[in-house]
Amino acid sequence: MISCVPSGLGRNHLIIKVQATKVKRLCKTHNSITVNGQFPGPTLEVNDGDTLEVNVVNRARYNVTIHWHGIRQIRTAWADGPEFVTQCPIRPGASYTYRFTITGQEGTLWWHAHSSWLRATVYGAIIIHPKEGSSYPFPKPTRETPLLLGEWWDANPMDVIAEATRTGGAPNISDAYTINGQPGDFYNCSSQDTVIVPIGSGETNLLRIINSALNQQLFFTVANHKLTVVGADASYLKPFTTDTIMLGPGQTTDVIITADQPPARYYIAAQAYASAQGAPFDNTTTTAVLEYKTAPCPAKGGGPIKPINATLPVFNDTATATKFTTSLRSPSKAAVPMEIDESLFITVGLGLLNCPPGARARNCQGPNGTRFAASMNNISFVLPSSFSLLQAHQQGIPGVFTTDFPASPPVIFDYTGNVSQALWSPVRATKVYKLKYGSQVEVVFQGTSIFTAENHPVHLHGYDFYIVAEGFGNFNRKRDTAKFNLVDPPMRNTVSLPVGGWAVIRFVADNPGTWLLHCHLDVHTGWGLAMVFIVDNGVGELQSLEPPPADFPVC
After folding, report:
1. What are the pLDDT digits (tens) for 257-278?
2. Sheet bearing 66-69, strands edge to edge
3. Based on the domain organization, do 88 and 211 belong to the same domain?
4. Chain centroid to CA 140: how far?
């Protein structure tokens, strides 16, 4: 396990360098942006209650920020990381120290760049162990293995998104998926570096699985082995057993496997769950190998014994994805907010913008000469560029955002039906929604079928939330409230909004700051599938945002 190398200032003072590094995959060497020359980047291993100071030094040619995905950042929104939301970017040659404390969290999270498409290669695991003297709520596994699922382009990802931004069309799909940075046996020039996960007969292994892919939900399985799910997004779950799990980008799942099969080599595999009808996607399979220490040796002069194949669902198997997401439960009665102060209904989906006056056809290569867009409640979110939203909010700088993000769609329509094309064009704006400190919030996310319906992994920064219900079609409060689980719903930081369906979350707004809510398919975020909650300070210091650090980057 790689931990960040301490700087000599103490155990939790770390220096990470963002830099270009030669990385060879699929027979070709690229000058990829990495952290400390590693791909994926180093694993941060910490305990609940630890305070971290991470000095990020930007030696790359792009602006960069780092987001600590799923860390609550209580009162430390300055350290959350999304570009132009909580900070201005770290310019090439500059540095910034992220300071934050892990508060009441255990399990698997991750860190990644939150600037353009840099997170394609700039990411790593965060493993939060229980406080000293505490233990897991399950028997301690023999070993633990983080498995980061990624997406690889045989190109510079920054060029891929720059081209799509220029044309207004969809970006090129990836060329491979990876496990811990390696594509695996089914790709060219890759099998010699396939990741091996060793295990002894009778041992247990806690697999910490992270979907760090840029734009694709993934199914994951281990050939012939049951997965006992024990946690997700650094929250424990009531354990249950399954063959396959589904993770949207941003989501993590902790599973325990037991080496109870005949000693051999077994494929660990992941491939796409692609729910958007007719949309192109990377239909390849990444693999690692679960290798029993007593697996039979190959014959003299022969290659390694071929692993036993894994069976994954077909790419559009929504039933399997749904069976998994609806099986998650908190281990015991949950503190679900019951007296709702703020009720929002947010449509989530794609859209198309008409070609701007005077624009050339080559800049409008979306469907029928348009440009792709995406929106929440018909607002396609535009990031500011002169100040971060947090700075503008905290310093009262006018003209950076408006506080009129609508709590419900401006027009009511058949969201998952055949939507009139008159409703396909969103409004581009920087609108936020203000929440009083301590308010109990319910959000209904409603997917739309504008252009195409698909599953969206929706991530809220600065918070965990309870997913109290999900379903298909249009949400109907009279009918669907009966389906709410207000006893033991799962707690997550990223919800899988079902394709052509809805999901309901609840949380208490107890963390002041500016908090991005966005689809974690980066292509959709760039098209505007985002909004921001501004949570006001409460009473006294402990309910108020800390002052900005001295080295806070300026725009």
Report:
1. 999 999 999 999 999 999 999 9
2. 44-47, 123-129, 107-113, 66-69
3. no
4. 27
